[in-house]
Amino acid sequence: MNEKLTKYYASVAIGLVLVFAVALSAGLFSAEGAKDVVRILSDAFFVPGVLLSGAAGLSFAASKGFYDVFSYGIQTIKSHFEFKKDKRAESLYEFKERKNSEKRGWLKETLVVGLSCIALAAVLVVVYILL
Questions:
Q1: First-to-final CA distance of the chain
Q2: Which of 35, 46, 64, 76 could bond to 121 as cystine, CB 3.0-4.6 Å?
């Protein structure tokens, strides 16, 4: 199976599990009337949409090197506890150059699924208002 398609399926599966969990916790099956059901479904799609979009945004920031300073700091602290005397410490510039040479991807598929959930929640809000 195509790797990109697998990422979409994984994102959709995570989204559906979250939708189901939020809907159950909000009492979807004990709701009285169509208006309550639409309200609960709107909330149930909005929460995973925000979570998945946020995760995709964080992965985008990581792919652009936003968290490299933190990684470098942790690596430097760890190197102080190693017993290798002959290893020269890597500078921040060298660390960033090494990280930039590596291929870094981000979760585009997760962003698409998250924004789709938010769009579906917006449609359900409009339906809720019209009921």
A1: 43
A2: 46
Which two tokens mark 12? Answer: 């959709």
Length of the chain as a residue count: 131
Indicate the range of 59-68, 82-91, 119-128 predicted with least confidence: 82-91
SS3 26: coil
Phi, psi of 11 (to 5 degrees): -65, -40
pTM, 2 dp: 0.77
- Burial track 58-77 (b if 16+ CB lie within 10 A, e otherwise): ebbebeeeeebeeebeeeee
* Helices 3-25 + 34-63 axis angle, to 10: 140
**pLDDT tens digits along 93-121:** 777 777 777 777 788 899 999 999 999 99
